[in-house]
Automatic annotation (TrEMBL), chains A, B:
Residues 12-187 form the Transketolase-like pyrimidine-binding domain. It holds the Pfam family Transketolase_C. The keyword Transmembrane helix does not apply. This is Pyruvate dehydrogenase complex E1 component subunit beta. NCBIfam families: PRK09212.1. Keywords: Oxidoreductase, Pyruvate, Thiamine pyrophosphate. The keyword Oxidoreductase applies. It comes from the Bacteria. Its cofactor is thiamine diphosphate. InterPro entries: THDP-binding, Transketo_C/PFOR_II, Transketolase-like_Pyr-bd, Transketolase_C. Signal peptide: none annotated.
TrEMBL record, chains C, D:
Residues 23-313 form the Dehydrogenase E1 component domain. It comes from the Bacteria. The gene is pdhA_1. This is Pyruvate dehydrogenase E1 component subunit alpha. PANTHER family: PYRUVATE DEHYDROGENASE E1 COMPONENT SUBUNIT ALPHA (PTHR11516:SF60), PYRUVATE DEHYDROGENASE E1 COMPONENT, ALPHA SUBUNIT BACTERIAL AND ORGANELLAR (PTHR11516).
Amino acid sequence: MSTRVPAGIREITYREAAREGLHEALENDERVFLMGEDVGRYGGSYAVSLGFLEEFGPERIRDTPLSESAFVGAGIGAALGGMRPIVEIMTVNFSLLAADQIINTAASYLHMSGGQFNVPLVIRMATGGGLQLGAQHSHSLENLYAHVPGLKVLTPATVEDVRGMLATALADPNPVLIFEHILLYNRKGLLPETPGAVDIDRARVRREGTGVSLITYGGSLWKCMEAAERLEQEGIDAEILDLRSLRPLDDESIMATVAKTRRVVVVDEGWRSGSISAEITARIHEQAFYELDVPVERVCAAEVPIPYAKQLEDAALPQVADIVAAAKKVVSGNG
Amino acid sequence: MSTRVPAGIREITYREAAREGLHEALENDERVFLMGEDVGRYGGSYAVSLGFLEEFGPERIRDTPLSESAFVGAGIGAALGGMRPIVEIMTVNFSLLAADQIINTAASYLHMSGGQFNVPLVIRMATGGGLQLGAQHSHSLENLYAHVPGLKVLTPATVEDVRGMLATALADPNPVLIFEHILLYNRKGLLPETPGAVDIDRARVRREGTGVSLITYGGSLWKCMEAAERLEQEGIDAEILDLRSLRPLDDESIMATVAKTRRVVVVDEGWRSGSISAEITARIHEQAFYELDVPVERVCAAEVPIPYAKQLEDAALPQVADIVAAAKKVVSGNG
Amino acid sequence: MSEAVEPLPDDVDGEYALKLFAEMLRVRRFEEKCAEMYSAGKIRGFLHLYIGEEAVGSGVMQSVASEDAVVATYREHGHALLRGISMNAVMAEMYGKQEGCSRGRGGSMHLFDKATHFIGGNAIVGGGFPVAVGYALAAKMQNTGAVAWCIFGEGAMAEGEFHESLNLAALWQLPVVFCCENNYYAMGTALDRSESETHLVDKARSYKMDAEVVDGMDVLATEAAARRAAAHARSGNGPYFLEFQTYRFRAHSMFDAERYRSKEEVHEHELQGPLRIFAARLQATGVLDDDKRAVLEAEVASEIDAAVTFAEAGTLEPVSELRRFVYVEDRS
Amino acid sequence: MSEAVEPLPDDVDGEYALKLFAEMLRVRRFEEKCAEMYSAGKIRGFLHLYIGEEAVGSGVMQSVASEDAVVATYREHGHALLRGISMNAVMAEMYGKQEGCSRGRGGSMHLFDKATHFIGGNAIVGGGFPVAVGYALAAKMQNTGAVAWCIFGEGAMAEGEFHESLNLAALWQLPVVFCCENNYYAMGTALDRSESETHLVDKARSYKMDAEVVDGMDVLATEAAARRAAAHARSGNGPYFLEFQTYRFRAHSMFDAERYRSKEEVHEHELQGPLRIFAARLQATGVLDDDKRAVLEAEVASEIDAAVTFAEAGTLEPVSELRRFVYVEDRS
Ligand SMILES: Cc1ncc(C[n+]2csc(CCOP(=O)(O)OP(=O)(O)O)c2C)c(N)n1
Ligand SMILES: Cc1ncc(C[n+]2csc(CCOP(=O)(O)OP(=O)(O)O)c2C)c(N)n1
Ligand SMILES: [Mg+2]
Ligand SMILES: [Mg+2]
């Protein structure tokens, strides 16, 4: 494959990229440490920190007991104490055990203290479905946190972003949540010659197009890419906007692509009702009301706890065919 | 005041109505019991269950330790064991400590078990701001739960609803969350002669109007009522739709009022981004796209942890003046 | 194993002992088949095997009465089978078939069964504690005499839900038997890296709860301990805590490279494995011989083959059913 | 009080003892003023008074070093004052004024101060445990020698966060001093209705943590215990747990009708109140007399009057500032 890779540019998996980002952070800043369940001896539940324990030692690659609320809260306290903790929560479903610390403490302290205590904490967690892990391991609860002022919510979809967003998040004085989709870890991508911190303020157009805008984030980006190729064969030129950050949302980039195509599909693996796709749709409605000829379409997860059986899980999650159908619908204009 | 009250109809506070509903439930069904912090000897943090301990005893008016996750989960287990528990969580902020049990267990068990184990659990909690309780006691996190399939989310705004929805929720085989806004407890309202269970499937038009639709729920209903009176003086005839249930949402009633007025303001005490108001706006956009001449306006809480200082809290929460201004904006048509 | 094997105590009925062995063997072979079927891609998702820990489930289930509930974890195949869920239904569940005990919606980590009050298959570590406590509360309030059996690993004891739940159970004197399957590892985290106090019964006792340590590799010991615990809980004396010291012979799940322990450590434990040890004792007592063993193996093998056939032949639930069972539609 | 009053031990310096008394008196009078100002509508929201528990805060704060952090609860006025936050800033905070120690955004339950590492003012019961543990972790990793002082009520010990945090602190040998203010009630819930084990130090010891019970009404006892705890934690021996047995003389908050305890019970404790007892001992020792007392009262009164004047004169933060401090805008 590497023959296809331009000189200087490296092809690497999302896992390796996440790993490089972590490695760099640990090397560059003594204050940075990684804390979570099985990040050390086990090698990380998705093998992202494999070998780090040997390299950085148990103080900085800190295996924790099963105590989500305490080790997330300990991350808050350590951040207040001058460290730059990276807390890993294995799966977003488990983060519900730490929701109190994340929402009532991390998100509130700066404001509640009149600007005195900011919490420079980074929390990484795996999210999403597709591995038949069932209803307690497969959800996309990003909007639970994207709803909360005081938090920043990042959803790296590319190798460059998963590598670079960590550095940016660590440089950010605010609590930042990074969601890594479980289906991405083994996916390969191209990393620029000199990768580094990336901005987290702007969404990115991943594919230029004029016929329809596919607005998405995280794992769904690649389904949109595939959908765009199918659409192209049918003569529909799709533009794809990767939100990258769910809080804050980059309204400017959203409205720019809306103004360009006037046909919009939002693709979101969260449950449809009360999801971030609703917020995006609402903002488009509010800010680009007169630009649209047909209503925005949303392609989301079915409103069911994600089931184990393959055919049911597939039916529950957004699929390429669903995106293609939604795109054709808005393009054909029968909104 | 009672002179104004029509015969047979009683004027009663929201607190008394909630209390009557609880009392009736405890009297009518041996399986029903109330469990939570200080529901017994203390009399309930908002005095709703005052005196119940003496009447029903400590088995059925069960004071719990400070263990939100365990007593909510115990409610789930008790429901599976044949009881009809009513669990009280003092404030929605504290429910984050039980979010795992509510979302990963209560909401998932029926589906995950292939239809075998339903969870007939009712959880009551206080919500909202306005009493200067600060950033850990004043939030409206309804959409955190309204986003979750498997849960039902009710927001009684009237004395009839707070009294009757409890009975309906107890008769429901699914987990039902009931949010009671803290500012309502002392508010008086009229109760029909023979109050009882109320439907939870339909939103209600609380005020007929033709000029603009104010779509709201819970504590904000009364702010909308006040706004409607002010608007009337300015010749704007507002219709007010009380959603009553946030999950499921009654699309039919929403679209009916939208079709009627073609001018919509959604009033929601939750933070704007990722709130239920976004979902409502998105649904209107999707289902009534061609009915609207101007975009829907949202009046929500400012995106800040609710501060203590009165002037800041007032500024952070939706106020009558904000609703009036939004209504005039959509009516004047400069969406 | 060179050291002399002690025969069964006289007070133990040979047939009963043989039954216990047969149950453990059944679970062992079933798990081995699951591993095989996982590699074959027939079973997906996460798969956690019970191999090495059979004596715990087998011993405990002897005391579980029909009205009792079992709240287990994601490592619950053995408990499900031993509780009486048919092997067909369990295997079909792992195949994601509609004939599975959770209609194929739960998979390996979410086995459920209404008839036997098998309340899951919970993949949130610690998530089952409050549920078991609540079930026991309902039992007590309704005087059903039922006991809630809460099964969990030692790693779960670090979760806040453990603390809150044990306190509630002890405070309210509820009929819960807490069964800790201490296999010394939580994924890759050894007990002494997860608990400041590794003497686990002390934790239970800090709630004023009766507790005992049990040799989880000896099915006679686990069976006897469960009987004591059941008697205690059923007679209204409140909860009981059992620490079963056992060991996981296989990887945590199929994604585990086992970097956190040595092959030697695992091998040493295997030599003391519950089936191996008990088989030897049965043989020393003359209750089991090679022919009998062969018969047992054959019976189990054919039941497993039948289960695989059943699962293979099972139906994939039509996608049109996806939205069923999110809510019970009829009001009760 | 008829029974004979024992004078101060010889090894206690009279001036120091007088200082401790003056500190307690200052807190007591401040709280009384808060109650008054609440009734006057000047202070809003929830208000939790420390009256009756002054000896705990006063004793503890003597051992809090400048680099240490204090993580408190919503009943933290006393701790804030004793830690060195000016009375002006605390009173102004309760008035919701910009000059308040949290700019008026926190109120009574959320006092914060960067200079003294006073990390709140937390109104989530149990919410401070993990924060204190994390602060101590940072201190240990950076060898700052700082100790995290975690102050909480006995009711908080039922929360899962207590369990998870004590285990982490003990497992990682972190410099945290856990100060339980056991006033025997959590709102209306008496200790024996919230904990199956009411001997609280046993809970701490179940994490292999050193723990002691302290008479929370005797400021000399609390001061000495805090010194032992600080020495222990600062010298790298890990966390320490102190149970201070005390009593809340006033209602839980201003919304509490106190149905759960009798006036007599409260009165009996008041007779043993920390100020009353200590004042008597100081008098018996000749360190305090009516004139000195009058002077102290006058000093406190004028400081409080000044604080009220300061708060009254404070500015209401302009609404245009509402959205500030949700995020730190500049990258660090
Ligand atoms: C709340 C939560 N955190 C983390 C996990 C991931 N996880 C699954 S099993 C496991 C280890 C549990 O160990 P133990 O309780 O000892 O049970 P065992 O697997 O050894 O039987 C972990 C960390 C989870 N499923 N749930
Ligand atoms: C998580 C949470 N649950 C419930 C409450 C409501 N509440 C506030 S204080 C309190 C009692 C706490 O008692 P204790 O810990 O003993 O402290 P004390 O008030 O006696 O000082 C309760 C139940 C809360 N603030 N946070
Ligand atoms: Mg284990
Ligand atoms: Mg207390």
